[in-house]
Amino acid sequence: MSDSEQSVYAKRTKAIHYGSLEESDRWHVERKDNENDASAKTDYSQLTTAEYMNLDAEVAKDRAALLEEFERRKKARLIHVSTDDGEVKNALRKLNEPICYFGEGPADRRMRLKDLLSALGEKGLPASKPAKEEEKPKAQQKETNESTWYHEGPESLRVARFWIANYSLARAKQRLEDASEKVRQHSATKAGRMVELQKRIQQLAPQCSQVGDTRPITGCCINENSSLLLTCSLSSLCKVWSVPDCTLKQTLRGHKCNVSDVAFRPGVATDSNAEVAMASCSFDGSVKLWSYDSEESIADINGHVPHRVAKLAFHPSGRFLGTACYDASWRLWDLEQKQEVLHQEGHTKAVHCIAFQVDGSVCVTGGLDGFGRVWDLRTGRCIMFLEGHLSAIYGVDFSPNGYHIVSGSQDNSCKIWDLRRRQMVYTIPAHTNLISDVKYQKNGGNFLVTCSYDKTAKIWSDKTWQPLKTLSGHDGRLVGVDISHDSQYIVTASYDRTFKLWAWD
């Protein structure tokens, strides 16, 4: 069969149109528009009659709930809730609420307690009478702890305080006369001296670098006439070196533990015999006194055992020795009366460093509690509280002007304090690691030196506190620094077992 035979033809139906097509389309459009208008009018009339009132009621209800929520949040903000997490848990327990939800922290728990108290309104927490009754003993105990108390001291302390008062008054008078003469100098003269000093500091270079011991060095000190250098180390040895060639002159043997600090006694000639000229302290609490003519100690001080003695310093007169001990106290020893005249407490943690004012009337101590205290040696009172460091204080020193104090801390900063105004005057972000020691220039106070665990020592100006010079070259952390009395030398001691002597070119 062919394709033509298989195909089926569909017959189209005929459509008869009356009138024109445009009129028919217009009629259909108008009819549809009329139906839409009628339905819209019907819906609007139904909304205005039945549902419109219900909609207003719901809006008013939502508005009231929103205002109530705002008021509740306002009350929650005004409610004072303790920041102690233990007290927050106790409050939740009294409200019969879970004290902790899964993944809930102290801040979230505190906010939950605020929300609960704001929802309870005036009810709040049930009043507990025993808690109020406990407040009175706590307040009385606080007053007792904060009150100053005294106890009777020995006759040796009275003698020492009278002697210090007479000694410091003459020194203070001389210091004030020198300060007045300095003020009368022409400003151009003072500015010229500062410019010359800064130029000299820029020329500072290492004069000598010496391996001081087989173990890390922990302290260093230069004597009054800048002819001798004293170092100590973790090997329990102390060594005396000549300046500036750094040759070994004397080895002091006697400590049985790590030696933490050394100091020269002021006013003692280098050719003296059988006279206390040096002092050292160690981790086992022993303090030893040395002379120039013997390698063995001529006297031992064992009043600190078993607590570590971190630092020591001689009084400007040379008669007294101050020691900072890890039993949270510091002590004053009279070398003439050969006994301890003062055992002073006040720090909450170990006392690490101590320094005397140039007059000899006051001293400053720094502790691992992050606070420093200035003590009047003539009365025994704490006359200034150094509060501002975020961590332990490892170094303190007095300026020769008598009223500026510098402190170096584990928070990498160095702070300057004014004893006259009894407040901090400046903070130096000095290093990138903890500051282990600080020292003022002894014959003018025009600059100060800080050393740090970041292996550098830095020199800072006294007035503007700007960095003048960075002393770098050690391979280990720096633990000690000192400036000679004539400002000719600066010595730094490091854990790399070496000490460096810096001098002007």
From TrEMBL:
<dbReference type="GO" id="GO:0046540">
    <property type="term" value="C:U4/U6 x U5 tri-snRNP complex"/>
</dbReference>
<feature type="repeat" description="WD">
    <location>
        <begin position="309"/>
        <end position="343"/>
    </location>
</feature>
<dbReference type="InterPro" id="IPR001680">
    <property type="entry name" value="WD40_rpt"/>
</dbReference>
<dbReference type="InterPro" id="IPR036322">
    <property type="entry name" value="WD40_repeat_dom_sf"/>
</dbReference>
<feature type="repeat" description="WD">
    <location>
        <begin position="252"/>
        <end position="300"/>
    </location>
</feature>
<feature type="repeat" description="WD">
    <location>
        <begin position="344"/>
        <end position="385"/>
    </location>
</feature>
<feature type="repeat" description="WD">
    <location>
        <begin position="428"/>
        <end position="470"/>
    </location>
</feature>
<dbReference type="InterPro" id="IPR015943">
    <property type="entry name" value="WD40/YVTN_repeat-like_dom_sf"/>
</dbReference>
<dbReference type="GO" id="GO:0017070">
    <property type="term" value="F:U6 snRNA binding"/>
</dbReference>
<keyword id="KW-0677">Repeat</keyword>
<dbReference type="GO" id="GO:0000398">
    <property type="term" value="P:mRNA splicing, via spliceosome"/>
</dbReference>
<feature type="domain" description="Pre-mRNA processing factor 4 (PRP4)-like">
    <location>
        <begin position="83"/>
        <end position="137"/>
    </location>
</feature>
<dbReference type="InterPro" id="IPR020472">
    <property type="entry name" value="WD40_PAC1"/>
</dbReference>
<feature type="repeat" description="WD">
    <location>
        <begin position="471"/>
        <end position="505"/>
    </location>
</feature>
<feature type="repeat" description="WD">
    <location>
        <begin position="386"/>
        <end position="427"/>
    </location>
</feature>
<protein>
    <recommendedName>
        <fullName>Pre-mRNA processing factor 4 (PRP4)-like domain-containing protein</fullName>
    </recommendedName>
</protein>
<feature type="compositionally biased region" description="Basic and acidic residues">
    <location>
        <begin position="130"/>
        <end position="145"/>
    </location>
</feature>
<dbReference type="InterPro" id="IPR019775">
    <property type="entry name" value="WD40_repeat_CS"/>
</dbReference>
<dbReference type="InterPro" id="IPR014906">
    <property type="entry name" value="PRP4-like"/>
</dbReference>
<dbReference type="Pfam" id="PF08799">
    <property type="entry name" value="PRP4"/>
</dbReference>
<keyword id="KW-0853">WD repeat</keyword>
<dbReference type="GO" id="GO:0030621">
    <property type="term" value="F:U4 snRNA binding"/>
</dbReference>
<dbReference type="InterPro" id="IPR036285">
    <property type="entry name" value="PRP4-like_sf"/>
</dbReference>
<feature type="region of interest" description="Disordered">
    <location>
        <begin position="123"/>
        <end position="150"/>
    </location>
</feature>
<dbReference type="Pfam" id="PF00400">
    <property type="entry name" value="WD40"/>
</dbReference>
